[in-house]
Amino acid sequence: MSQPSQQDEIVAEQANLKGQQAAGIEPVIEARGLSQGQIVRKRFLGHSGAIVGLVVFAIIFLMAFTSVGYAGIPGWWKYTHEAVSPLANDGAPTASLWPLAWGEHPFGQDRIGRDLFAMTMRGAQQSITIMVVIGLIAGLIGVAVGALAGYFRGWTEAILMRLTDIIIIIPALLLAAVMAQFAGRRDEGSWFASFASTNGVLALGIFLGLISWVGLARLMRGEFLTLREREFVDAARISGASNARIIFKHILPNAVGVLIVNVTLTMSAAILTETALSYLGVGVKSPDTSLGLLISQNQEAFTTRPWLFWFPGLFIVLICLSINFIGDGLRDAFDPRQKKFNPKKARDTGSPLAPGQTPVAAQEGSAGDRAAGGGAASGDKGA
Amino acid sequence: MVTYIVRRLVTAALILLGASFLVYLLTAASGDPLAEFRASSSPNKQQLMDSRSALLDLETPAPLRYFKWLGGAAQCLVPFAGTCDLGKNIAGQPITDALGHALVQTLTLVTAATILAILIGITLGIITALRQYSSLDYGVTFMAFLFFSLPIFWVAVLLKEFGAIGFNNFLRNPEIPLPVAIGVGAVFGLVAIVVAGGDARRRVLMGGTVFAAVSAILVYFSVTLWFKTPGLGPVVIAIAGVGLAFAVTLLTAGLRNRKALQSALIAVGVGVVAYFVIQPLLSQATFLMIVLLAVATVLVGMGIGYLVGGYDRGQSMRAAAITSFLLGLLIVLDRFMQAWPAYFNNSRVRGRPIATIGAGTPNIEGDFWILGLDSFTHLILPTTALILISLAGYTRFTRASMLEIMNMDYIRTARAKGLSERTVVMRHAFRNALIPVATIVAFDIGGLIGGAVITETVFSVRGMGFLFLDGILHVDPNPVMGVFICVAITAMVFNLIADLAYSALDPRVRVKA
């Protein structure tokens, strides 16, 4: 456009106004010449909460899987969650901050002398395993159901969505109880019963994954419903692309942000569900251990051995909190309306943006936040 | 509209049928109801097993049993026939009775928690949205994430330990050492510094005032052993009432509306006089009487507002009515406090008032106030736990919704035409921000009665969750089905209400007829 019309001037003025109003919001010059993946990565790495969450989670992950070993591979820690050793220091934790020392039993021991550090690490392993299994299964089924229902509409949608409606109201507690029952029947074995009794956690994760896809399926259906009406889908269809190609190559990449964010939130809710079920006695069962089970076993001993109660709870909160922060960072990174906020710039206001730069509307990621609210609301159900 | 509702209801009924069939089969498949007898060595083992089989009708295969159950349940749809039959549980008690009892327990547990969580959550959400990127905002956001991540059973055990056992020990000799009083005051002062807006000087002044006030009050409490014989007294009620009058007027009408402020202050005056008049009446209070008094209070408040009038009568009436209602709450609170020593020294309570389990002290006797205090001391811990974990969702959601609204063009228009910030926030932004929140609230209320399984287990409240869990553990389908039907129906009805409310509140959204 060679000559700026009056309308353009108004637009520029509004842009300036927005820039002033949303002081401290940096324009997205960073986006120039970068692919979408690069932009997302850059934004995510700029989100300090998410990075802290990622680091904390990585540390816990490494500690949990290397210390007591996993799947038969021995770890570097000298005790396992089942080994009984004589009580040292009356079972109290030997770890201390000053002087920084690890000691014989850093988190203490329980009444019969099992090492709490080993048990907590084992429990963290279980929680992380369940979380990943649920995330994978729920993600796959949720995407498949949501994509089919949203893309094909009609009868497919009606049937799949009614199925979703049915599953969404079946309580997770009941399914967990059924699962626990199967796992308990070691002797009279169908193949599933024998699988469940040897891999209790995996089976529980699979079962929970089979019911936690419903929220995701609804969200994905909504995404597909909007995306399939867009011009680029029409263009693809006219140039002869098959349905599968349109779904996988054209629509799915555009919905991947919503997908990843909500899988993360599902995973953080999954940890709480697992611990709650174990606490109620229908999740992971003794002699194996889990964070929820540890708390349930030790809550009576709170006055005498409070550490038995503190450390497992602390690890639940840490894992869940770090996953939530990672999810928050991902949401901010994927939301195209998201701005980059700089508190320092906000303070010295009154520096309107130079014309030519495009300010980004200062809308807090409302849609994403709303999705988080919904996720939280559904997560509360386990309470 | 009607077609839409009918279609939704028909779909819901079909979904309910499908889901209940699945739930029945799952419960029946979840275990062996005779397991406890198989391992026993009692001589009449066979007899016990036979009677249990007959009771649960184990000879019939589970799918057929479901249809038998459905036949009984279908009679519940006939209104006023009294033929409702949801079967009996393993102890022989009819499910309808058990459900009625459990429902009352659950509702008393979750009602206060939900209302408080919604109120506090929305308030926090609005404040953090108005102070976006302040230290308050960051603090509340972090707390919200933390509360998301707390397992409720863990919180519950902590609350029991520190809230109940610790506080009861403290009540035995309620003296607060001076360092503790100053420490608590300092914490409150810091919170005030974070919460207060404005420049650094104002914040520090605010923090200092709060610190001094809180510390002084704690020292006063300690010296007078206030926790043994708590009470507010007419003076405190009058001072608090004047403060309330200003606050309510500020929010509803703005302090520049002198008539509204006058009516609120008159309402406080009337309330303080009523405090003395009403004391003998309150001594023989019943629940109904309190409700009637509350209605009367609001009516009197509106009357005062109407008489004072002013250029906007509605605002005066609103300010006076809300003020008098809050003042009434203060008076009732004072009366509860007066009953505290009697409750504290009750032979059943024996000086350890805050309970860790149950929904009431067994066999306690007393008037309305004693019984009220008894429910209060039993409910406070589970309620706190429930509030903590559900607060975060409301806060985040309201904040997002409010931020979206505050960036709308009509908000800029409202500011541009010179409206005060109060009017912009309270009239233009707040109401619109509540629309999406309203749907979430309806959705949550639908999931409430089944949503407190763990809380009920930890605090041994025999509500719906307990009934459900007990049914599962004993492989007894009837209570599970009873709870499931109740929960599913409320959830679906409130889902429908949420959708309808959205289209009623937001004219841009229309339901597909």
| Cα gyration radius of chain B (Å) | 27 Å
Biggest interface: A-B, 58 and 60 residues
Assembly status: heterodimer
- The beta-strand count of chain A equals 2
Distance, first to last CA of chain A: 59 Å
The tally of beta strands of chain B, per DSSP, is: 0
Q: Strand order, main sheet of chain A: write it out.
A: 1-2
Work out the radius of gyration of chain A: 25 Å
Series of secondary-structure elements of chain B, N-terminal to C-terminal: HHHHHHHHHHHHHHHHHHH
Helix content of chain A: 55-70%
Mean of pLDDT of chain B? 84
The total count of helices of chain A amounts to 15
Which structural class matches the secondary elements of chain B?
Answer: mainly alpha
Distance between the termini of chain B: 5 Å
Q: What is the mean predicted local confidence, pLDDT of chain A?
A: 74
SSE layout and pairing:
The complex is a heterodimer of chains A (383) and B (513).
Chain A (H helix, E strand, L loop, with lengths): L5 H16 L3 E2 L9 H10 L2 H20 L48 H37 L1 H15 L3 H13 L6 H8 L1 H12 L2 H14 L3 H8 L4 H38 L10 H8 L8 H28 L5 E2 L1 H5 L18 H14 L4
Chain B lengths: L1 H28 L5 H4 L6 H12 L5 H13 L20 H36 L4 H14 L3 H21 L5 H18 L4 H25 L8 H20 L5 H25 L4 H22 L4 H32 L23 H39 L2 H8 L4 H26 L6 H6 L5 H10 L3 H29 L8
Helix pairs in contact in B: 1-19, 5-14, 5-16, 5-18, 5-19, 6-14, 7-14, 8-9, 10-11, 10-13, 11-12, 11-13, 12-13, 13-14, 14-16, 15-16, 16-19, 18-19
